[in-house]
Amino acid sequence: LITFHDHALMAMSLISLLVLYALFSTLTTKLTNTNITDAQEMETIWTILPAIILVLIAFPSLRILYLTDEVNNPSFTIKSIGHQWYWTYEYTDYGGLIFNSYMLPPLFLNPGDLRLLEVDNRVVLPIEAPVRMMITSQDVLHSWTIPTLGLKTDAVPGRLNQTVFTATRPGVYYGQCSEICGANHSFMPIVAELIPLKIFEMGPVLTL
């Protein structure tokens, strides 16, 4: 990803410098001939050259897109099921631990809690380990989204989507369903509590 970023940024920089030079030359050069002339060769070049540049950018972009979609040897697999309007989490690697995660009503919030974002049971995940999330839905379209982790995967009934991530910092990360899934669409938050791997290996039951 970093190499592709540098590759694309270099192409953009060269194109921007070329256009800037052309604009500067047009504004500073005194026009001595105002007759309209044909320049078919130039038109052919500035039509074919951008197409070639786009192809050179598209091929590595598609390759990285498919590589990032593959999940190779995740350390943990957790299944998330969307309902109207709460989430169910299954820790398939820990004896089938299953629990629901509901939004806390305002009357049950503690000082400092975030309104419409706190839940009764947080999904606890380890840091410094690749985690695979299997995401589906039981009723309508949902979306398991945590913006601060760069995660957004649709929960589709009858389909099992997956995403993988590796967090590097502990903390509490908040998200919400980003699909219009019904009347209480904005009231099914997602709270992920990321803890060190050594503590997580002691058992997720102890951290719930």
TrEMBL record:
The record's free-text note on cofactor binding: Binds a copper A center.
Catalytically driven reaction(s): 4 Fe(II)-[cytochrome c] + O2 + 8 H(+)(in) = 4 Fe(III)-[cytochrome c] + 2 H2O + 4 H(+)(out)
CDD domains associated with the record: CcO_II_C
Any one Gene Ontology BP term: ATP synthesis coupled electron transport
Sequence ranges assigned to domain Cytochrome oxidase subunit II copper A binding in this UniProt record: 73-206
Pfam families in alphabetical order: COX2, COX2_TM
Membrane topology designation: Multi-pass membrane protein
Keywords: Copper, Electron transport, Magnesium, Membrane, Metal-binding, Mitochondrion, Mitochondrion inner membrane, Respiratory chain, Translocase, Transmembrane, Transmembrane helix, Transport
Cofactor(s) the record lists: Cu cation
GO cellular component: mitochondrial inner membrane
Function of the protein: Component of the cytochrome c oxidase, the last enzyme in the mitochondrial electron transport chain which drives oxidative phosphorylation. The respiratory chain contains 3 multisubunit complexes succinate dehydrogenase (complex II, CII), ubiquinol-cytochrome c oxidoreductase (cytochrome b-c1 complex, complex III, CIII) and cytochrome c oxidase (complex IV, CIV), that cooperate to transfer electrons derived from NADH and succinate to molecular oxygen, creating an electrochemical gradient over the inner membrane that drives transmembrane transport and the ATP synthase.
Family: Belongs to the cytochrome c oxidase subunit 2 family.
Cited PANTHER family: CYTOCHROME C OXIDASE SUBUNIT 2, CYTOCHROME C OXIDASE, SUBUNIT II
Name assigned to this protein: Cytochrome c oxidase subunit 2
Record organism: Mandrillus sphinx
